[in-house]
Design goal:
Length: about 425
């Protein structure tokens, strides 16, 4: 791996050097905030930070670096935090962890991935990436939230109190959408939550709805009861996002859990990597017309029964939603993909359906016309909620250098 961008920007490659920065309840961890951890000067926006095997680093303040490369362990202090980087790579025995299966990370944690230009920082990953390869693990456990519920009573224009068919654990300030079901009523309204009753069944909006949305109790046309509107929660306390610079070109961040780097596909045996995402929001994700650059992508991991995507939401996606290829057993439960360009969920084989069809929802997938022939073959001018490709997985093309400025418009169909 090389970091030519760091030298170009005048940055430095940092690695923790002292145990004097260990703090508090994390006695074995080095505190990012302590200058002693870094031998004097803490890393800045132009620097690369490498966490070597055997080292535990505690991020206890907001940080901004060029790349965070993890082969040891990175943990997060119990406070609101923001991490800004062009890329985060976890490999080998490396682990990046916030919370665990028994205790969720209870604070706000935001990863913002971006840069003014698209640099190919690590061969095969490009930029704006969160990746675990060659055995690495990313574990982000936020509070589990109910991702969506059906509307119980129909709404009329001017309604500000909506009644749900199932109780929710949503809070004032959360963002939601109301999406009328069925192809005949493509209506979506985005609102904030002003209040929720103690039983979780009635939600007061921050502004009245403008349209009628049919509830479960309404008489559905042709008996299509699943046409009842869905109310979807967009907010989560842990968020992974691309920066705002790539919106015009459809160049967001991408997340990859892979047995090896894309450039190494076909060489040797892949080491299974692990990605556990519970209660996570993915926004401004996916890189349009770039194969392999999806909001959530499991690739070439063989059997990955320890990997999961649960109670998460993907919105403002520039290329598909969840893609699983060359990997079996990923647990996909209770997730929502909102208005992706292309299919919501893509699996390689139909027999993998048991991994995915558990309370997941795709809302209004948008038509997309891709340049890559293999991607065009999936007929995304008529996008589906779930698509089984039935095609043996192929390694995505490898970037060999800098690519186009994301501020240049990309040809895409919305």
């Amino acid at each position: 791996m090389s970091f030519s961008l760091v030298r170009h920007r005048g940055g430095t490659i940092f690695s923790p050097v002292s145990a004097d920065g260990a703090v508090g309840a994390y006695a074995d961890a080095l505190a990012w905030s302590s200058p002693a951890t870094w031998g004097g000067r803490k890393p800045g926006p132009n620097d690369v930070v490498q966490v070597p095997a055997g080292c535990t680093l505690l991020i206890d303040e907001n940080i901004e670096v060029t790349v965070l490369e993890i082969q040891g362990t990175v943990l997060f202090a119990a406070r609101d935090l923001q991490v800004k980087a062009i890329g985060i790579l976890v490999s080998g025995d490396g682990v990046m962890r916030a919370g665990d299966a028994r205790r969720a990370f209870a604070h706000r944690l935001v990863f913002t991935l971006g840069t003014g230009r698209n640099f190919n920082l690590i061969h095969g990953l490009g930029s704006k990436f969160l990746a675990a390869v060659n055995g690495g693990a990313i574990e982000l456990f936020g509070p589990r939230r109910r991702a969506w519920a059906r509307l119980s009573d129909s709404t009329t224009p001017g309604t500000i109190l909506v009644r749900l068919s199932e109780p929710v654990d949503w809070s004032p300030g959360d963002k939601i959408i109301i999406a009328s079901g069925g192809a005949e009523r493509p209506l979506i309204e985005e609102r904030g939550i002003f209040g929720v009753t103690t039983d979780g069944l009635r939600v007061t909006l921050d502004a009245p709805v403008s349209h009628r949305h049919e509830g479960q109790r309404a008489r559905m046309r042709y008996g299509l009861t699943d046409s009842a509107a869905k109310v979807v929660l967009l907010s989560r306390s842990i968020a992974i996002e691309g920066d705002a610079n790539g919106i015009h070109a459809g160049y967001g961040a991408h997340m990859l859990i892979a047995g090896r780097l894309p450039k190494d596909s076909g060489n040797g045996v892949a080491s299974g990597s692990r990605g556990c995402f519970v209660g996570v929001e993915f926004r401004r994700m996916g890189q349009f017309n770039r194969p392999g650059r999806y909001p959530a992508h499991w690739y070439d991991n063989q059997v990955a029964r320890d990997s999961m995507l649960k109670d998460c939401v993907i919105h403002e996606s520039f290329q598909r939603g969840v893609v699983v290829s060359g990997t079996r057993g990923v647990q996909l439960h209770g997730n929502v993909v909102y208005k992706p360009l292309g299919h919501g969920f893509v699996l390689e084989r139909p027999e993998d359906w048991a991994s995915i069809l558990v309370d997941n929802l795709t809302v209004r997938p948008r038509p997309a016309r891709f340049v890559d022939p293999a991607m065009r073959a999936m007929d995304e001018v008529r996008p589906r909620s779930v698509w089984f490709s039935d095609v043996p997985h192929q390694p995505p093309p490898v970037d060999t250098g800098d690519i186009d400025d994301p501020n240049e418009p990309a040809a895409r169909s919305c």
